[in-house]
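Feature request disguised as a bug report, sorry. It would help if multi-protein outputs had a clear separator. Right now it looks like this:
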Amino acid sequence: MSIEYVQDMLVPDGAGGDFHLDYLLWTPLGLLLLDLRELRGHVFGGDHLAEWTVMDGVRRTTFPNPQESLYDRLAALRALAPEFQVDGRIVFADGVELPKLAPRFTIREASLDTDFVMGDRALAARAVEDLRPAWERLKASLRPSPVPRQ
């Protein structure tokens, strides 16, 4: 799906802190940030809800709406790499069921390959080679995360 990618990196937030990036992909269409969520069960969330709920059998848990942190990380990336179109998705593991009208920016892992088709990698890389200096500059501004995903 990508020409290159980085995993488990920190991006400066512009205020002296950092945001964790699970995966950042350089694609023919720009940068794609993937925020992975390893959950099981039915996820109920909405664009304007502060908390989302996971129902796994009789077990019910909640977690903060992940869209807010995705927006923050996308803004940080846009500030560092204005040459790129920047997009992002909250990716739920295949053990998750999302409602038919899933919240904005959410996707199941199994849908990644069909929703983000790249085609021939070498051809795609040649098509965006003029952006390589911007990609390298962006990578140089990232730091490895001290706590990588498992």
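(second protein starts here, but nothing in the output says so)
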Amino acid sequence: MYNQMVVQTELSEAEIDRVFHALATATRRDILRRTIDREQSVSELARDYEMSFAAVQKHVAVLEEARLIVKRAEGRERLVRANPEMIARARALLARYEELWRARIARLDDLLAEPPASDNERNEAPKRGD
């Protein structure tokens, strides 16, 4: 089934900014982790933090704006669950960053592995004007 789905992996600059902003706070990372495990109400989430319900709602709103979570109404409650598609897109972005760094390190390793030029080789190098 997953192979048949077309998943957009490229994030816009604004989306990248929202994702990193959302993940920059330990409370929001914890909310995201908890909602990956299972869908929870905002009230249920708020019980575990030493902050006001309104403060937890703000954290949820930041995660929702970054589309890392999805919120839905069920009666009077607002249920929150992680959005696996956006998490996958953020993971793909981080994987690309990792590839860039690994490529840079590999190039640096290659440069460091090259034997240094001997004095004779440096002296035999063509001079300007030759």
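Even a blank line would do. Unrelated, but nice: Residues 11-114 form a domain with the Arc Repressor Mutant, subunit A fold (CATH 1.10.10.10).
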